[in-house]
Amino acid sequence: MTVETSTAHESGVAPADRPDNAWSVMQRFYKAEAAYVAAGGYGKAGYDRVAAYLDPEVVLHQAPGLPFTGTGAWRGRDGMERFLAIFSELWESMEFLDQEHWGDDDTVVVRNRVRFRARATGREIETWILQVVTVRDGRMLECRPFYWDPAGVAEASAPASQDRPNPGQRHDPPAPTG
What we know:
Distance between the termini: 18 Å
Largest sheet: 7 strands, mixed
Mean pLDDT: 82
Radius of gyration: 16 Å
Structural class: alpha+beta
Oligomer: single chain
Strand order of the largest sheet: 1-4-5-6-7-2-3
């Protein structure tokens, strides 16, 4: 099992990784996903770069309660495109600040510290997302994200008329012990 950390300032490629292992695939996917969101998403950005890292049978499992989770499961490349269309309407940017990962060729667990900026309000939130990802033949097959602060993420993406106290507040998980 590999354990590595990186920050947004590193090159983004672990030298010993095979180009088709789970972490390498996710690094390229994250870069393509962030570029797609920043360009405005559906109808404004090309989806081919994102789709290149997705297995035709990809499934994204989202927990309920966030404005972009929909029915909970987004299936296939078309489903992922529909998910990213909604996600891109809400967020104008997503910046990966820190990443730590554990895994092997087929599965990776990634702990991301992410900064989102809401498209409608410009509000930002820094939060953690833990993802369990499997790959097949160098493409993402399944992804299960777990948001540290779903209420904070929902609040930051809410329209200005739904403001609540402390928008954009940083929400950190407790430091690991042991």
